[in-house]
Amino acid sequence: MTPVASRRLILRGALFGAACACAAVGARVAYAADDPPKSPTGKWTCPPCGCPNDGKEFDAPGTCSAPGCGMDLVPVPKKP
Question: Both 29 and 65 in a single domain?
Answer without folding.
Answer: no
